[in-house]
Structures are given as structure tokens and as C-alpha cells.
Specification:
single chain; mainly alpha; SANT/Myb; DNA-binding transcription factor activity; nucleus; transcription
């Protein structure tokens, strides 16, 4: 993910968990909860990180980034909705 500069693995993991728990509509209250769960990051940094994540996913889905050819046993069989197409918008 191109927005990882300055983000430690632990911060990224906390970000992922916080998004899964709290991001529904993109309200200010949700972003406050998310940022409170990510160590050393402000609300604006968390919002920017999310924006970059959505842009990265869109680029992948648009075919602008080649998807690696993983061996069959490593491939995921889960069918999830696209984050880029179903993501809440940022209230800036």
C-alpha cells in the first residue's frame, strides 16, 4: 500500500481492526473512534491513510496494478464486496 510511509506494522493492524469495528457511514464520531484505536496517529492521518487505501484498491480493481499469480493453495476463496465501491465517504 503506497500510504504506508511512516506507519508501523502495529499501527496498520490497529487501523484495520478499528475500520472493521467502527467505519459504517464515515461520520466524525466514527473517525474519532478509529483514530483513538491507532497509536500515534491523528484523525487526519487516519483519514488520509484510508483515502490512500481506497485509491490503491481502486487501482487494483481497474487493472492498473497486476495481481500476483499465487499458487492455488494460497489463494483466498472469499467473495467480499469491493472496498472501493462500497466504502463510506470521508467527511472533511
Amino acid at each position: 500500500m503506497s500510504g504506508q510511509v511512516g506507519w508501523e506494522w502495529e499501527e496498520n493492524k490497529a487501523f484495520e481492526i478499528a475500520l472493521a469495528l467502527h467505519l459504517k457511514t464515515g461520520s466524525d464520531e466514527e473517525w474519532e473512534k478509529i483514530a483513538s484505536m491507532v497509536p500515534n496517529k491523528t484523525i487526519d492521518e487516519v483519514k488520509e491513510h484510508y483515502k490512500v487505501l481506497v485509491e490503491d484498491i481502486k487501482a487494483i480493481e481497474d487493472g492498473l496494478v497486476p495481481i500476483p499469480d499465487y499458487p492455488e493453495d494460497e489463494a483466498s476463496d472469499t467473495d467480499t464486496d469491493s472496498l472501493a465501491n462500497s466504502s463510506p465517504t470521508l467527511n472533511e
